[in-house]
Design goal:
The structure holds two protein chains of two kinds.
Chain A lengths: L12 E4 L2 E4 L10 E7 L2 E4 L8 E3 L7 E10 L15 E4 L4 E4 L1
Antiparallel strand pairs in A: 1-2, 2-5, 3-4, 3-6, 6-7, 6-8
Chain B lengths: L1 E2 L4 E2 L22 H9 L12 E7 L17 H4 L4 E3 L6 E3 L3 H5 L4 E7 L7 H10 L12 H9 L8 E4 L26 E2 L22 H18 L5 H17 L2 H6 L7 H7 L3 H14 L4 E6 L22 H25 L6 E7 L2 E2 L11 E2 L3 E7 L6 E3 L1 E2 L6 E3 L4 H11 L9 E2 L5 E2 L13
Parallel strand pairs in B: 3-9, 3-10, 6-14, 7-8, 7-9
Antiparallel strand pairs in B: 1-2, 4-5, 6-13, 10-13, 11-12, 15-16, 17-18
Helix pairs in contact in B: 1-7, 4-12, 10-11
Classes of the chains: A mainly beta, B alpha/beta.
């Protein structure tokens, strides 16, 4: 039986200072949920987001920070020779918030 | 042959005359008459009311114990693996970082870290052990735990006593029995296999409602016609066909019962609760398990996957082909999915006051090799693994047994699969000393040759 993941998960982010807070995820697929943190366009961290509804990135290196909530989207388990997924991937399920240090 | 569902059901000689009476209901209906033979076989005992139930989550493929519930952070890198342990609600007990919700409820969980068996390392060997408490071959099939419970306690409501969600285990490598049949107890006690996915958008009611053109009126008309035929041919029938007739009658009743349709309908729950379980096949099956227990089923098995080939599942060989699960599958899919659904189930049962009367077990076939293979995966390993119990009066917040420094073998309090199965029965209120089963040739037999794990019961 194929694993079914219908609908699309959604959440909304709010920023207060450097602390980002998420709403409950609707249509939650129950797979890995993570904050994707970028600085100046480069991904620098992907901490787990399942337990706590807020997150403050500890790094204060100057730059523009962008944070978005992601969830794993399972399509199939196929992987390439580098052992990375081919079709399954993380997708963004929220708005992006940003701040500058 | 009769059509109760999408498939044709071959019947024994003497009843194929009804092949034109196609109830034509649902995919799940394939198993309906067999499950409903239970009552005809005299298994119902309405006097037994206060009996505990069981939900078994069966992790097909089997998680690596060193990557989940028996971590060895001080072992060499090629043994301890990639994940880190986290603390739990029980001081001194750590589990994998990818089970953060479970870590918070460890005070309710009884981990058994010294499980092992000494027979073959196939998935089916482990399935037979953990679902029946026996190893056996196709010529001597031992009954599934749910079948034993069905035989001892019978049905409580119109729902079958034993139900398997979302589907029976299929191809896991060899063509030997999986342990999901009723064996010598007969088809009257066979588990009812849903065979459908409760996570699918249109799952609700559709699997229990007649297809287009099959109105309740038509079904009832066919039931009446069947009754007339029965009265004509009753004299020539055998006891076996009489059992089946009763089963068909119950199947018709189920198909037209609003209460039954409702029990099988997860959309009756709030979106928030459905999200809490996880909008996926396993999560919604766990939610459905709670609904079915709540509505009168006694033993619900949820199979986390029905195969190990070409799907994300616990069978982490990382072989680059049809068995290519890796740490990435564990981290992104399997551990979060299990953590979400399992903890939702426990919380939900607790909030409804059902946990004390429902023993929840999480079982698997074996552990995985302590040393990572050369592709970064782990292979089958029956000498050591971890399973656990929650609820049903079981004493939580404890670890029973342990393994050695590299998780290669039990270090103390070794536990064999029959002890786990005996513990399930004991937790459900079955007296192993006095309860006998009608074995081959109808002679009474003990149905499990093991003692329960006493530590579970305080």
């Amino acid at each position: 039986m194929d694993q079914k993941f219908e609908g699309t998960p959604k959440s909304a982010l709010r920023l207060e200072g450097r602390k980002v807070t998420r709403t409950d995820v609707t249509n939650d697929w129950g797979l890995r949920l993570q904050w994707q943190v970028k600085r100046d366009g480069k991904v620098i961290a992907t901490p787990a987001a399942r337990i706590e509804a807020d997150y403050t990135h500890p790094d204060k290196t100057p730059g523009k920070y962008e944070i978005v909530l992601q969830m794993w989207k399972y399509v199939n388990y196929r992987k390439n020779k580098q052992r990375e997924f081919i079709d399954s991937k993380f997708i963004e399920i929220s708005n992006t918030v940003s701040y500058t240090i | 042959m009769i059509h109760v569902g999408q498939a044709h059901v071959p019947l024994c000689d003497g009843v194929s005359r009804r092949s034109f009476l196609q109830a034509g209901a649902t995919a799940m209906g394939l198993s309906l008459p067999m499950a409903l033979e239970l009552e005809a076989a005299g298994a119902v005992d309405p006097k037994r009311q206060k009996i505990k139930n069981c939900i078994t989550l069966f992790l097909v493929g089997s998680p690596g114990h060193l990557d989940t519930w028996d971590m060895k952070p001080d072992a060499p890198a090629d043994i301890r693996g990639k994940f880190k342990p986290i603390s739990t609600a029980v001081p001194g007990v750590q589990i994998c970082e990818h089970f953060p919700r479970m870590a918070r409820m460890m005070d309710q969980v009884a981990l058994i870290r010294s499980l092992h068996h000494n027979t073959g390392a196939s998935h089916e060997n482990g399935q037979r052990w953990m679902m029946t408490g026996h190893d056996f071959n196709a010529a001597n099939i031992q009954p599934h735990m749910g079948s034993v419970v069905s035989r001892i306690y019978g049905q409580k409501t119109s729902l079958p006593a034993s139900i398997v969600l979302p589907a029976k285990i299929g191809n896991t490598g060899t063509s030997t029995p999986h342990g999901q049949a009723s064996g010598y107890l007969g088809t009257a006690h066979a588990p009812f296999f849903l065979g459908s996915d409760p996570a699918v958008k249109n799952f609700k009611v559709a699997n229990l409602e007649p297809p287009k053109g099959q109105t309740e009126f038509r079904i009832n008309s066919r039931r009446n016609l069947l009754k007339q035929l029965d009265s004509i041919q009753r004299k020539t029938e055998t006891s076996s066909t009489i059992q089946r007739d009763t089963a068909y009658s119950r199947a018709f009743n189920l198909l037209t019962s609003p209460k039954t349709r409702k029990a099988f309908d997860p959309s009756q729950e709030t979106d928030k609760l459905r999200d809490r379980y996880g909008r996926n096949t396993f999560g919604q099956s766990c939610l459905l398990a709670r609904r079915l227990i709540e509505n009168g089923s006694r033993f619900v098995t949820v199979n986390h996957f029905d195969t190990v080939f070409n799907v994300t599942c616990w069978d982490m060989h990382a072989n680059g082909s049809s068995l290519d699960n890796t740490y990435l599958d564990y981290e992104r899919h399997l551990c979060p999915q299990f953590d979400q659904a399992f903890t939702a189930l426990i919380e939900d049962l607790q909030e409804r006051g059902m946990l004390e009367d429902t023993v929840v077990t999480v079982l698997s076939e074996f552990g995985r090799t302590p040393k990572l293979n050369n592709r970064g995966g782990r292979d089958h390993y029956p000498p050591a693994w971890t399973n656990f119990f929650v609820g049903g009066g079981v004493k939580g917040g404890q670890v029973i047994g342990s393994t050695d420094k590299i998780g290669a073998a039990p270090h103390d309090r070794p536990v064999l699969p029959p002890e786990v199965v005996a513990s399930v029965y004991t937790a459900m209120g079955i007296d192993l000393e006095t309860t006998m089963m009608p074995g081959p040739g109808s002679r009474p037999v003990r149905f499990i040759e093991a003692d329960p794990i006493q530590e579970l019961f305080g």
